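Note to self: user wants both folds in one dump. Writing first protein now.
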Amino acid sequence: MKRLFFVVFSLSVLIAGAQDASVNPSAVLILDRMAAVIGDLQSCSYTLATSSDVEEYPYGMVKKFSESEVYMVGPDKMLVQSRGSDGHRGYWYNGEQLICYFYNENNYTAIDAPPNILETIDSMHSKYGIQFPAADFFYPTFTDDILDYFDHVELVGEEWLAGKECFHVRMENKDMIAQIWISDDALNLPAKMVVQYLNKEGVPQYEATFKDWKLNPVLPGAIFEFTPPEGARQVAVAVKSSSSSKQ
């Protein structure tokens, strides 16, 4: 999913916007609160469990799973360790380079990167098709982009999820239905996201669940530096084709 979503609006702007589209001001205020908390973080870590519906010959639609441990220090340090259907991969970003290490093959790529995390995520996706799941929540245009992209933004209510009460916000346009569950506590952190792609055959679904949030942990700088294991080979990374970049 493209970067969709984060900026705090005044209540008057929210109400004015609600007159032009089906937008619930309370839902937007909840999204803004979540975004403000994330925007104030100096560092964080969390675990993200995802599932995706994908077409796989000869079976048709199948579900793929992955789990990632994410560590970030703003604005220019990130480590992601992902395990799942595509094997075990690690991503190290130190403000200058992004290293992608493929544990199963014992090879890695080194890519010159922009000087901050968000520009790096955008660049790696547009040029190489590298995905960083659920990165949307960290963009400073989160709420703004939601209101631009979706025709309907609704507060469904509250639901019990993973041992806590969560606000349930639903967004919809002709191509997509997205739902976000946000903890109803002092921090208002994202707990879960589900996206349905209405414009794709079979209406595939993507689901992401956040766990083990740690806010402003002290993370040693050494963890963001990659040291090639013995025998590891450096390989070139393929640039994404123009046709895939339009998806």
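First done. Writing the second protein, which came from a different request thread.
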Amino acid sequence: MRKPIVSVAVAVVLACVVAAPASASDNQVSGVQLPGATAPDCEDASASFTMTGGLVGCWYEDTATFTQEKVQAGKVLIHFSGTEHFAGCLDVDGDGQCAAGDTHGTLSFAFTFTGQFDAITESEIRGRCHHPIVSGTEDFAGATGVLNFKDDVANGTSPYKGHVKL
């Protein structure tokens, strides 16, 4: 008779260990980062970008360190790393604005940028960034995830894709 009780107890313990918190969510995001700060409440238009799509708000570069340069066949390959942050919301309802019910706060990122530039004109040929989330505030406290950007050099924007786990 003891065996069924032990089996039930083990099943209950395993269910508690395996179950994820009900509040955890992994949000797929995508959109476009635009140069300049056209979003409301951006702190400094000269040093920020406007985020549209899954993340709505302002994007700021905090630190950047030049790490490598290589000239090859008339092209300059560069690498930067540093920190950036986003202030705004996760646009849960997809209406293009931060509203009640959306996740609000800031996200801080480490980043690496790799770009290729014309050695003569110095114009960008292609570029991409990788942004792991390192911390968050307010509704983003404890957030994890990553965003990846790929520059659209034809129109000066940076489409992004990634996920934010809350």
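Dump finished. Worth passing along: The chain has one domain: 23-165.
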